[in-house]
Amino acid sequence: MQPQNTPVAGTTGTTGGSGSLSYEQAGVNYDLIDPLKIAAQRAAAATAGHLAPHGFSEVAASRGESAYVVDVGPFYLASIVECLGTKTLVADEMARLTGKSWYDRIAQDTLAMAINDLITVGATPLLVQAYWAAGGSDWFGDTQRAQALVAGWKAACDRCGVAWGGGETPALAGIVEAGRIDLAAGCTGLVNPKERLSLGDKLGPGDAIVLLASSGIHANGLSLARKLVERLPQGYLTEIDPANHPGLTYGEALLAPTVLYSPVTEALWQAGITPHYCANITGHGWRKLLRHPGRFTYRIGTVPPVTPVLKFIQTLAGQDNNESYSTLNMGAGFAIFVAADQAEQTAAVARAQGIDAWVAGRVEEGPKRLLIEPLGIEYGAEDLQLR
Amino acid sequence: MQPQNTPVAGTTGTTGGSGSLSYEQAGVNYDLIDPLKIAAQRAAAATAGHLAPHGFSEVAASRGESAYVVDVGPFYLASIVECLGTKTLVADEMARLTGKSWYDRIAQDTLAMAINDLITVGATPLLVQAYWAAGGSDWFGDTQRAQALVAGWKAACDRCGVAWGGGETPALAGIVEAGRIDLAAGCTGLVNPKERLSLGDKLGPGDAIVLLASSGIHANGLSLARKLVERLPQGYLTEIDPANHPGLTYGEALLAPTVLYSPVTEALWQAGITPHYCANITGHGWRKLLRHPGRFTYRIGTVPPVTPVLKFIQTLAGQDNNESYSTLNMGAGFAIFVAADQAEQTAAVARAQGIDAWVAGRVEEGPKRLLIEPLGIEYGAEDLQLR
After folding, report:
1. CB spacing of A157 vs B48 below 8 angstroms
2. Fold exhibited by the domain B208-383
3. Per the CB 3.0–4.6 Å rule, which of A325, B1, B149, B279 could disulfide with B103?
4. What is the rounded distance in angstroms from the CA atom of residue B257 to the CA atom of residue B106?
């Protein structure tokens, strides 16, 4: 099981004042999911030997990482299936309120969930499969919405240079709620040449941490974001920052599509830079910087500006920084760990792809912890138990 | 889009008497899905060129087939994501009636949907990904059910010799209905060596048609099967064939897990037999025998025995053979087209894997049609429009 969409229990930070709303309070109970996940992980690991008769083997270090990697000889094969989550509920409500479809953005979000995870292992995404499970045939009868989904999916494939192989469009009345759709994406890629593999053995003290900008909430923390709308008299149409972003509503800001990071990782390879490790900053917020299985201290000296919608959520939820950075991306959607002397170039390559980037910190010897010094935050190993 | 779970509109056969129930009447409206599928297929096809900068290319003939195939040099890569459909609704109701979980069988069904499609192109399935999207965290709190799902998934992987790479277990309250789960599987494999590719160019007049036994309804036609239960005073606990199968209830018979056919295709390769084409007999019933894009006549002289639950459904729905064979597998879950002089050995290889098999007919020159001679049925090209 890749755990990025189902954080383990008990890891969310402390809440703020009496009116604050934590991740668990927003409706997801990970205590109930975990025993199944552990059983599934054990059963899955026990199947690795099936590759041997074919002459192949799994890359065991990829278990627990964001994509599963198999050594097929001339290169590694990487694959993943990822769910969007509940962001469509915001799109549906915004469609009701604004009369337009937001599913072109939702399509990008869905593909980003799969592609941004796949690239963390060093893979080039090659092809994707669509999984669009609707609550009934009538979902597909809304032409504007359906065409937006197709157009957004195609555009995201074009942006990432992946082939759209096909997919499934089942109508699941009785399983998926009427009027809703369960969106997911499968992605398969290659680590080619094999030295691009970045499962963590290259990471070490002295490496730099480069953070890439997010566009907003991306596709994690939506349960919280949806719960918070109840506190807003104008709901999703509330302006989140009238002074600096007049007219930008909460709903529209939430629906900023997730940044696709594969153009950056591919451009890095072209530039001769092989990341030592990567982390997709999703469901655990910045605690994902602790994802590497080793024992290092991660010291952050530069904190990217907080995306307005995340600042708005933080304020509305009454969260302190400790809690917000532990669950939301707070402006940084992807982390690249590279040799220190390649850090500035890494950031420059990202910016050339239109994605802001910061050389934000460094890897050090020391106990497993993340220090966000400008904010006085420390997360320890006990704050992220993914495996 | 792979169309096997979403048959196109207007292709279902005529209905029988006034009490008969057709596929569309059971609640799936393909007219609404089709325009989206066509748009998606066109958009997807337009992304094929993205493989070229990586030095790869798609196998164009795989578009519209059951799995997407990419030429990555030393071998072909094949991938697919497949949905189970609504069979879980039967399992849920049977759990309520019997107090036991049926999700070990459901797990096999889900994997079979992906694996049985992947192998049609000649691929060896290598790894699978789980997609288990529940209506809420509490779904995973039913330990018996969750463990059955894990155990069944593991057992199916073991049976097919595939590695279980990981997966997703999201809780999607508000999208998936409370107490329900949306199950799907991703499967990636290799066509290796490349001459195993079976996208249809090898098929020709004189080839034999070998049919492999199904175990029951498999995972297609469940909407109809669930609708029919309303006609039964004892519902899912109705005995379907007291004389020959005392105690076998409608619900249990429906939940016979889908046969996994990859052990047969792998054993055929070991035996030196390369199928000229394969068809997974799913949503369109025997019309799937017309799946090959070419223009041939398929003449069936031997019809396998009808699985009792399918006979029961046919009678209950008041369907004639023409309709039943056009939507249900009627006892044959998979078709292998091979050189005539390898037909008997193909059937023997299948039987050695514990799956009954029949050399049922042959491919001939002539207009595109399927003749099921013992039943006086003829389906034409207009009865199956998959692409």
Report:
1. no
2. Phosphoribosyl-aminoimidazole Synthetase; Chain A, domain 2 (3.90.650)
3. B149
4. 7
